[in-house]
Specification:
The chain is α/β, with parallel strands linked by helices. The strands form three sheets. The chain has a ten-stranded mixed sheet, sandwiched between helices. A four-stranded antiparallel sheet has the order 11-14-15-16, with helices on one face. The protein has a three-stranded antiparallel sheet with strand order 13-12-17, with no helix packed on it. The longest helix is centred in the middle third of the chain and has 25 residues. The radius of gyration is 22 Å and the shape is globular.
């Protein structure tokens, strides 16, 4: 039955090339798989770190032995896309839907700016689906798309059994700005400052303890790291570094150390052979600390649609399950994560759920030589806008990039393709072929135009819960005292 279900899911997801819309309803007689059929899933996502800081991708000025070991004994992707910045990436991977569909097309720091609120009634997350399939679900690190003052149990409502997360910088609450030293952390026991502690250690401690507690149950562990996002800081291993780049290197090395600690824990608990680990990042490196690969700095970085902003390190490791020591040019983007997790876990997609991604589980398990993707998409730049109705994207139609294995197009705010690059011969996107008469260029442009034509002329607005929103003009002086709502004013928010 499980093989039939997996084949059915993959087949349905592989249908519908143009829009990727999938509505799947599983057979009524389907049964949850047994424990032996459900691998643990550990999804590690570093914050603001591109290929230019990962050793196995050719980074010049860093060593990342634990991450490199995952690649050496696993499957390394060359063409995996995130969105170019934080909020669009996180909304996409959680829902399996592109930002134009959810409305989260730009960055929005909910605890700091208010109004926007990631709504559990509007969006179905992979955690919710896997929890219903029998998984124990946990998150540690950074969430940032709900305000826990408004809804302390937001993560539970999004499908997580337990959590240990930085609150995000909460307006009028200065201690909450800290995610590293003296971090301000939200758990089931409440929110508080952990004086003298290093946040990344606490997030990792929590995951280790969760694995120890639930080692005999299937687990979905989501680790959106706080590292390596600014502010640039010292780490417990390198307390004396001073320069910007030395601090960043220290943060990357500590990221690698924590990855190693989690792998050691899986080995110690004898869980490694039943765990699929995915390591990736949410967008490219920040502009001030971009590294080099073979002496060259990637084009673009965080918040850029160039490859340096959207094409991320993506490594999958699972001894005995995932092909070892392989490199693939298969296409995938973060909309594929939800359907992939669902298929790997033998779970069920809710009837009628619309997703844009396609499962790459057969590729990860060595049952396919390529992904089912003929193209992938990325989009999202700068902060969103607040207006009288809440929060919305900067533009009615957000500019975006789409690519296949050879060509990449840039689509402007008027829904027009205004650039096309041959990534095979021009990986740094230096020569715009938009005016070329070459037949292959014209065929690619036509193919991508059909994809563009399938998308709406106007992006959706984010849907969110606005009940109990706080008045950012008043200080937060009591956990029990609720601030009165403020009237929204149309304005643009500067990106932090």
């Amino acid at each position: 039955m499980r093989c039939f279900q997996a084949a059915l899911l993959f087949g349905l997801i592989a249908m519908g090339f143009a829009s990727h819309v999938v509505a799947v309803e599983w057979p009524n007689d389907s049964k949850p798989p047994t424990r032996g059929d459900q691998p643990n899933l550990l999804f590690i996502m570093v914050d603001d770190l591109g290929k230019d800081w990962i050793g196995c991708y050719g980074a010049d000025d860093i060593k990342t032995p634990n991450i490199d070991a995952l690649a050496a004994s696993g499957l390394k992707f060359d063409n995996a896309w995130s969105m170019p910045q934080c909020t669009p990436t996180r909304a996409t991977l959680l829902t399996g839907q592109y930002p134009w569909r959810t409305g989260w097309v730009n960055h929005w720091d909910v605890p700091r700016w208010g109004v926007g609120y990631f709504d559990w009634e509007a969006y179905t997350t992979f955690a919710t689906i896997l929890k219903k399939a029998g998984y124990k679900t946990a998150i540690a690190g950074k969430w940032q798309i709900n305000d826990f003052r408004v809804e302390p149990l937001a993560l539970e409502k999004h499908g997580f059994d337990d959590w240990c997360v930085w609150t995000g910088y909460e307006a009028k609450n200065p201690p909450s700005s800290k995610r590293y030293w003296d971090p301000y952390i939200h758990t089931r026991d409440g929110r508080k400052k952990y004086k003298g502690k290093f946040g990344p250690d606490l997030y990792c401690d929590f995951l280790v303890q969760f694995m120890e507690k639930h080692r005999d149950e299937p687990m979905m562990l989501y680790f959106p790291m706080a590292l390596t996002h600014g502010p640039l800081i010292t780490t417990p291993d390198e307390l004396d570094v001073e320069s910007k780049f030395d601090k960043h290197r220290a943060m990357v090395r500590y990221t690698d150390k924590l990855v190693g600690r989690l792998m050691d824990t899986l080995d110690r608990l004898e869980l490694r052979k039943n765990t699929i680990v995915i390591f990736t990042t949410d967008n490219g490196s920040g502009g001030g600390v971009r590294g080099t690969i073979d002496g060259k700095r990637p084009t673009g970085g965080k918040a850029s649609n160039f490859e340096g902003g959207v094409c991320q390190p993506f490594i999958v490791n699972g001894p005995g399950m995932v092909p070892a020591g392989k490199v693939t040019d298969a296409l995938t983007d973060f909309s594929d994560l939800l359907p992939t997790f669902v298929e790997l876990g033998g779970a069920k997609l809710p009837a009628g759920l619309t997703i844009d991604g396609k499962s790459i589980a057969p590729l990860l398990l060595g049952n396919a030589n390529d992904s089912p993707r003929d193209w992938i998409m990325a989009m999202g730049y700068g902060p969103a806008i607040r207006d009288s109705k809440g929060v919305r994207g900067r533009d009615n139609y957000t500019d975006r990039v789409i690519r296949d294995k050879r060509f990449k197009v840039w689509v402007d705010k008027n829904k027009q393709i205004d650039a096309i690059y041959d990534l095979a011969s021009d990986p740094y996107e230096q020569t715009n072929l938009i005016g070329s008469d070459d037949a292959s260029v014209q065929a690619a442009k036509s193919k991508f135009q059909s994809v563009v034509d399938e998308t709406p002329d106007r992006d959706a607005r984010p849907r969110y819960q606005d009940r109990g929103k706080l008045d950012w003009d008043r200080p937060i002086d009591s956990k029990k005292k609720k601030a009165s709502p403020r009237k929204s004013k149309t304005k643009s928010i500067k990106q932090s």
